[in-house]
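Quick check before the chapter quiz. The format below is the same one you will see on the exam, so make sure you can read both the input and the output lines.
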Amino acid sequence: MDLDVFVTAHRAEWDRLEQLLGRGRRLTGAEADELVALYQRASTHLSLIQSSTPDAVLTGRLTQLVARARATVTGTRRAGWRDAARFFASAFPAAVYLSRRWWIPTAVLSTLLGVLIGWWVAMNPEVQASIAAPEELRAMTEPGGGYEAYYSSHPAASFAAQVWTNNAQAAAVCLVAGAFLGLPVLWILFLNMANLGVGLGLMASAGRLDVFLGLILPHGLLELTAVFVAAGTGLRLGWTVIDPGPRTRRAALAEQGRAALGMAVGLAAVLFVSGLIEGFVTPSGLPTWARITIGVAAEAVFLAYVYVLGGRAARAGEVGDVEAADRTASLPTAA
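Here is the expected output.
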């Protein structure tokens, strides 16, 4: 494409569009129709220039012009309660549901890894000795020791807030780190499972595995599920870098990145619930069966939320992205 000829042919349309934009709301009906038509043409011109003959100055001018025209044509709106309701009722559960092929295998493999590490630690005294001295191990695993005292070491409210902050940060790191081909996500998962496995192994070797599970399961089911969802989403984002599918890599990463950011908000709410359970239920005087029942119920509610609401929304076309009107328009990509 000859850029000079193209500019000469369409400069008058761009100038006219800029003139109409400068008039703000003082447009007649015919001028408003003209503005819409010129906006559509300018959008097409911008796409053609970006794909065939990129020119920084011209691209900058048309990008700004198209953005102004789009804001005028579509109008600006502020996020409100309707957006929050849509997010939690359909967008977030649909995003979790659609990414299940990533986070469910992640959950299964990670849990197996944690169990294997726990078995390895429990069955090998030399491994236990490499972790800490015998007296330190006794201090951690004995009744009222480190593993039990941890959950009542601070007031419930402040402990729940601290746990929620730490877990939300870990989930956010998993989501963001996915852009680096998912490698940091695998390392974060390994560290979490190694920490869990060491606790399992040490308490099992002391004959107190039931106590450990009674402390972990009430909040751990929901907490680990949220971590697995974040890790699976991060790995999915990393795979998008490698294989964007029929879309351009830029468009695919934009869509997955927006979904990941939304996922971070939704998982923060999920982790807030698990933090409340960890702060108020886990160290409470309730019987072990009651505490575990609360944890199982919270996990069941979340999974029903994902599979019922999320599945229904996904089948209706929801992908967890922002609404179509808020997305950047793009040209079709050849398969």
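If your answer matched, good. Residues 209-242 form the longest helix (34 residues).
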